[in-house]
Design brief:
About 30% of the residues lie in helices and about 35% in strands. The protein is of the alpha+beta class and about 140 residues long. The chain is globular and about 35 Å long.
Amino acid sequence: MRHYEIVFIVHPDQSEQVPAMVDRYRQMVTGRSGRIHRLEDWGRRQLAYPIEKVHKAHYVLMNIECDNETLSELEHAFKFNDAVLRHLTVLMTEAVTTPSPMMKEEKSRSMTTGDEGRAAAPAPGAAAVAAPTPAAASPSQSPA
C-alpha cells in the first residue's frame, strides 16, 4: 500500500457537514484495510483566488495509506460531491504523523495571545525581536 497526502476544500455554506464528510471518507479508507495516519481540520481560511465567486473555504488535510482502488474511489467521491471545491492528492514516500505547519501555526498563535487579549510569553523556540538600542540606531557609527 502507498502513502498519500490529501487536501480538500469545502464550500463555506457546507462547513457544518464537514465532520460527516470526513467520517464518510474515513470509512472508505479504513473499510478497505487502509489506515489514516493524520487527519486535520484547518477550518475556514481565505482562498488565494476566488473559486465560483467564493473567497473563503473549509480546509481538511488527510494522510492515508491505501491501495490504488481505494484512492480512485475516494477521488471519485471528491469529484462528484458538489460541496468539495478542489482536492489535491500527493504521493508520499512514508507515513506522515507530525502536525502540519498549518497546525503548528495555530498552536503558536494561540500561545502568543493571553485569555484577556494581552500578549503572553513567546512560545519556546520563537525568535524574539529586540528593539534597537540608541547606540545601534546612531548613524555616526560605521559598521565593522
